[in-house]
Amino acid sequence: MEHQKTYLYAPDSSRPTKRGRTEAPEWELQSSWKMREETCHRLWSEQQKRIQKVLDDANSDTLSDILDFLEKVEHQRQRSKIPCGFILAGSSVTTQTSFFNQLSEKVLASGKNSFASISSGEAPNLKGFLKLLIRRAIAKKDAFDGDDETITTKGRRLLDYDLGVLHEWVKEKEIQEVVVTFQDGEAFDASLLADVLELTHLWSNRIPFVVLIGLATSVENLHRRLPQSIVRVLQGRQFDIVQAEVLLERLYCCSMIDSEPSLCIGPRLGTAILERIRLHTQNPQDFVDELQYAYMTHFFSNGLSVFLSEDLEWGDWAREHVEALRNLPSFRRFAEEKVKYPPSHFSVRQLLDRDDLLFNWARDTVAKSHKTMHLMAEAAKVVHACRSLVGKSNLLLSDLFMEALSGQLHDASHVRELFLTIKRAPSDQLSRLISTLLPLVPDEASTLEQIQEKLDALEAENDSGHPLKSEHDVQNQTLRATVVARRVELSKLKASLSKADAEYTDILLQFHEWLEGYLSDLLIDPEDVLLSEITIYDRKAPHKLAFEPKPRHAIERALFAPHDYLNCDCCPVGTGPDSEGTLSFTQPPTSILYQLHLESGPLINVSDLFSAFRAIMDEEAEEKQILYLFQRALAELKYLGMVKSTRKKTDHIAKVSWRGL
Amino acid sequence: MKRKHTALSSPRTPSKRTPRAPPPKDPTSPSVTSTTSADETSEADVNVDVDSPSKPRSARGGAGRTVEFATPTKTPSRGLVVTGAERSARRRSAARLIEREENESGSGSEGEELAREIWGEGGSEEEEGEEEEEREEGDDVVEKDNEAPAVPPTPSKRPRGRPRKTRARTPTPPRDLPPHELYFLQTRPGASATSNNTLPSTSLLTADETFALSEAYTDPHEKQIAFLHDLHEAAFPQWDWELRNGFNIALFGYGSMRAVLEGYAAHVWEGEGGAKIVVVNAYVPGTALRDVLAALAGALFPRSAKLPLHPNALHTLLLDTLTESPPARPVYLLINSLDAPGLRRGSAQAVLASLAASPHVRVVASLDHPSAALLWDARVRALWRFVAHDATTFVGYEGVEVDARTEVAALLGRGGRGVAGRDGVGFVLKSLPGNARSLFRILVAEQVAGLDDGGEGEEGVEYRVAYHRAREELVCSTEHQFRTLLKEFYDHVMVESRRDAGGAERLVVPFRREELEGLLEDLVEG
């Protein structure tokens, strides 16, 4: 079987099947797996719907702009000009792809257009490009069966890269527009781009071409790459699509903050995911993947996650789960805390003794914990809104929320700064603040409305034309320097405040006090939230392994310190990934040879390598046996791309990779 | 006194069993003690110069493995008086350190550094000194015997030291260098002086020997390997879960993952009886994208269906089928060595990824090469939607993924790529008519003759020359016949065609000289 290229698997009856082993391990909390799986599926599909909506809406404005452009072009088509749209898509390739897919759907929806989208990798030369263009524009599947180089149209045999084919088809179907899209304009060879544009120009009197070019940099850059003659015939317009980073922020907010998520991604994992996407992949879709993986891992590995299910009923399965609940750190802390106060002894004892009570308690607590998290998100939004209103918007909402989740937002320096700024806010700013916050905090609306009313009343009396000022505003203070006995004395003088200003200051302080109280109520350390183990998932390791694997490091480690993997008695213990390896004849031969080759320079004498290898191997082993192992190990090193052959010297090989680089 | 060393270009050479013992514990450093022993003691008592002229001589004579710091480099003029014989490296190091302290010369030499190292090592060596002396002296005798023939004809059993260089060098390579520093150390100009030793052409194993040995060989780590395998099998439910959620799985790590994938196939088969599981062994030479597509189509369509031949058309058909009328149950696609040469092209990966993106195709692929992830650009990577798992197995690649014998032969530039060495050529020639044999003999003979003349760079024989020789010997009468005969050789890569500097075509038999001569013998005799 292993020497066949491909085969359809069928169990080999001659080989015994290892039935016992392939079953899922019997785990005490395994009984709830079915329920957890369903819950996970349900919760994720809700989340996915929200995310999909954000993705769909992300570029709706640009899309309608482009469609509008395409429609108008039809009427304003100038002779000898190609209508051309430049789509500034940013660096994220994948955002572009999804955008062009959406665009293609919309363009084709009318039934009178044809759409051909081509990326640089698919079309290396003009012929290939035209073939693809025609094939995609006509979008007929069976029209081209592989090797057939020609297409027959109306009795004429044309080559399959002849735009005449397209012309005939356009005439036949009465197509209004043929939209040709270069997905990644920069990646195309400049001369190919010029050739294609010239051809489209030449045919534009017969075929109604519209060209769209996706750009990552700028239109000027493209301009520079094209010859003047081509630039002259383009009639262009520029469109911007949402940048990956903005989209990422929107996705985070929609999935974590705006809705009431049933599973919250903790600050460490959240920061790691966002950082990876911002710095490395620039692909918002990755966020969706990693979020899904977080859901999957949480429900797969944490038996208690079953409590996130909505319709949970007491059953036999629950016994072990309830026992596990009692062992949660947050529950233990809670119980120990309660025991300190005698009146609550009884309730704690009941929770410890009666399973069904604890079960109900846990369900309620999880719901409460959700509420707490939601309020925390609300608080983060309030902070963000305040910050942007006082003119500071350098921190993203996602950053603020993550800070809140790690319990650091309340004491953060930028929040203290925010409070100081608010203390100095003039009245117009305060009223703007209140009106922005009102929809954000439904629970606190009454307090805010009271303040608003007072403020309105005060402003109605104020006919000075200027907003009212706060007592704490620095502009109200002047510094006076007086020379007393040859010493300069500085003294602060408060400008005289009007009565209205003083009253306003009272109101402002009221607001300030309210905000302070509100935030300190809501911004608690999530670790103190009961059962946060169930509602927050914050493990970085599984994600790091799954999405940022280090295959090279793993292979090098396996070869350099085989003991780390084999854990055998015979081989010496590797002392760490960065220290010297230890050679021993008991190690796998490839490992020995790998360590030997590490020591040498770029050229290795195979004969000497063999002598060194032989010196390490068991004395009793036969020469042939050693030679066999040597050959095998050398071939494996070559297979793994560590060495290659060289012609520089006889019987020498070249070293290709250095460990750890 | 010059010895030929069998060593890599490496600064240190592994010795028996404990090849990487830190330098102070290495047998070489006690030998320093021994060099200043016995016969010298009395002399040293009288002559109090640290570096008496007799010492370096004995140091060099002492088996050529003593560390160089005993050689008088700059000290003779200093004449520091030390009473009593310095019997150990440790004591001498101390003296050297003190001397430096006094002189305040500032420029610390390498010797001083080593001295410091030895001094810091502690006194355990002093006690060992006596025993070591005896042993070392015994060794010295043996080694002096060994040295009698100036250059040992064969590499000695135990490699010792590296070739002595005249220029100053660090006695021990710096340890625990960060990877980049090590790279620069090893690739610095002039660092890669390797010996001119060659492997005798007979030393490589023949196919039969290899086969017999591989049959007889059992891995001493069988138990641990089985444990690793079980570990991966325990993760199968997790794989199921990931695949069900639309992710695909990439396995990486050292060792063949064939068995793990097969185990997973069995697991899937048991879990959902009769699932379609397509297994692709991409490492099999000649595997191409069309094979994978055909296998997938075989799983999706009934046997009688007429399928397009062209891979592009087949790909489109598969994609359409997967979106429009998907199979009732997902198809499993298990790919061994997704990074094998046959599938390495960007377009192949893009096609496979586009299929894998379908929720009805579940892919588990193993990646052997450490840098396999470089195959994908951002777009393809997003399509694959891979979740990676470390599946280090330590199972050898030999026999299935890798044919060690031919790989090594190719690595050393022995034997053609097409046929497996000399045996292979003989095999091919047996199946060809006599004319072809004669032609090949002519080519080999001309090439050997060319080598004898010392024609550097102009390897092989010129096309015209070969043709005329062939006509002379009545092997062929027209150029067409000549070409026809050559064709078979080209197919088996027994002959390669190159252009020389003048643009003339040259025919080259891609073998080394010894093998060519061997071949010629075979041909003339046969």
From TrEMBL, chain A:
Where in the cell? Nucleus
State the residue spans of region: Disordered. 1-25
Name one molecular function that GO assigns to this entry. Answer: DNA replication origin binding
The Origin recognition complex subunit 3 winged helix C-terminal domain sits at 552-658
The UniProt transmembrane annotation reads: none
Q: What is its main location?
A: nucleus
Q: Which domain of life is it from?
A: Eukaryota
Q: Identify the residues that the record assigns to the Origin recognition complex subunit 3 N-terminal domain, covering every copy.
A: 28-307
Matching Pfam families: ORC3_N, WHD_ORC
Keywords of this protein's UniProt record, alphabetized? Answer: DNA replication, DNA-binding, Nucleus
Keyword DNA-binding assigned: yes
Name any GO cellular component annotation: DNA replication preinitiation complex
One GO-annotated biological process of the protein = DNA replication initiation
Which PANTHER family does its entry note? ORIGIN RECOGNITION COMPLEX SUBUNIT 3
Family assignment from sequence similarity: Belongs to the ORC3 family.
Q: What is this protein called?
A: Uncharacterized protein
Source organism: Trichodelitschia bisporula
From TrEMBL, chain B:
Region (Disordered) location = 1-179
- The biased composition feature labelled Acidic residues covers 123-140
State the compartments where it is located.
Answer: Nucleus
Entry's Gene Ontology molecular function annotations: DNA replication origin binding
Looking at the record, the residues that make up the Origin recognition complex subunit 2 winged-helix domain are 455-515
GO terms under biological process: DNA replication; regulation of DNA-templated transcription
Gene Ontology CC terms: nuclear origin of replication recognition complex
Q: Which residues form the Origin recognition complex subunit 2 RecA-like domain?
A: 225-391
Q: Where is the composition biased (Basic residues)?
A: 157-168
Q: Say which domain of life the source belongs to.
A: Eukaryota
Which keywords label this protein? Answer: DNA replication, Nucleus
Could you say which residues form the signal peptide?
Answer: none
Low complexity bias locations: 28-39
Return the similarity comment: Belongs to the ORC2 family.
Recorded hits in PANTHER family, A to Z, give:
ORIGIN RECOGNITION COMPLEX SUBUNIT 2
- What role does this protein play? Component of the origin recognition complex (ORC) that binds origins of replication. DNA-binding is ATP-dependent. ORC is required to assemble the pre-replication complex necessary to initiate DNA replication.
Self-association and partners: Component of the origin recognition complex (ORC).
UniProt-recorded name of the protein: Origin recognition complex subunit 2
